[in-house]
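Here is a protein:
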Amino acid sequence: MISHTAIQKAWITIWELAAVYHRYEVEGMENLLGEDEHGKQAVLIAGYHGRALAVDLCILSVRLKQRLGYFPHCFVHRSLKLLPGATQAIDALGFVTHDDEAISRAVENGEHILLPPGGASEGMRTYHDNYQVRWPSYGYAKLAVRHGLPIVPVACAGADDTYIGLLDGDKIVRRLGLSRKWAWAPWTGLGPLGLYPFSPPFPARLYQVIGKPISTHDYDIENEDDIKKLHKLVKETVQDLLKHAQAQKEKRS
């Protein structure tokens, strides 16, 4: 059995190599390193899901491990647990699949939660929809309000350029009457050596922007209009961050 330490080292190595390959840069890291009057402040990191792997968010998880001493608790698809050995990796890297006691413990310990609200619906699209925020639900906003977490928006220019999206997995599964959670299954994209997942990604430059925390204290978990209002605010903020990231990336090209 592979040790947790070995799994963590492998994860760090993979995404540090990816950071070099994609010439990753990040702006606004200080927005994830602050503390409140009680010490460490947990936040919900709500990130744009660029293409299939959300490479920039994986790199960010490694950079936060280096700065904070722990991996942020990343939400992953529940079907991941079906893969051989996945449960051990989930435990080693602190991944979560739904809002349960693991989330409560993380919040109590002041540890960040990382969640891409768009998921497969956002990542598995055609190139026609590049850099358009598509968050079909607002469960992340309810989670943040329920646990009293500020929401830190994250966006990355270059993320959608890692593969040329050829299909819209979300539209395909909905036409078939299936859940959006399966949008990853029919999707494919074009990489430099052929089709995903058999080709590596294009070496697109990644410029990630971490926005300022958005307070959730004034929103009522029982008020659906309140949650929708928060959802709208976060979505619009991420869309603005994408525009800013694109402009900064172009300056560096």
